[in-house]
Amino acid sequence: MMLLRYLTQMGRYFLMIKEVFNKPTKWSVMKGLILKEVDDLIIDSLGIVCFISFFVGGVVSIQTALNLTNPLIPKYLIGFATRQSIILEFAPTFISIIMAGKMGSFITSSIGTMRVTEQIDALEVMGVNSLNYLVFPKIIALLLYPFVIGISMFLGIFGGYVAAVYGGFASSADFIFGTQNEFIAFHIAYAFIKTFIFAILLATIPSFHGYYMKGGALEVGKASTVSFVWTSVTIITMNYILTQMLLT
Fold it and tell me: Looking at beta carbons, which pairs linking 181-186 to residues 24 or more positions away fall under 8 Å?
């Protein structure tokens, strides 16, 4: 029964994505919706992303330094480990999981509230494709999500630099050399490929749970919770699959 229910949900999810691109809303209306979503989803997320990235980068740097107790181990490895941790996993994956809570809950609750208050039904009565009207602007807005992750990468490494240098764990030259040592450009491409796919998941899975929810105000909260869980699980699963495909 659980497998059948899961497959049914998957089928409805892909049908929803297909319907999003049917019967598009007029561009004069859609332009305003997209700009609003950029402000709500991207701009409003920058503060928490910058704060978390800077301090987690510092923590990664300090923990790496504290584990390099052997004096024969070069100090530049602090910068190397910080760079690898931030670029490969922390910025694209863990920030996306945090955004599943921040963005995802916002998307699910906003669409769910429209469902509860029958605003979606009103759109359908007026002949508007409600999925295109509600979900498409979120997908387009989240195409800017890689820029958020790029800022996260920079601030994470910068936070590691501040913690290592001003904490007395490594010199500025050692840390910078570590961030440049054995740099593989494809790691950046790998991180942004993951980020792009995670952006699509962040836009569509919460929208699915908000759009198809049933009940009243209490169910809106439950839908937000379920949305966060499923978005996080899907991101972690896709992270594993993409890592196997792209790095092995």
Answer: 181/76, 181/79, 181/80, 182/80, 183/83
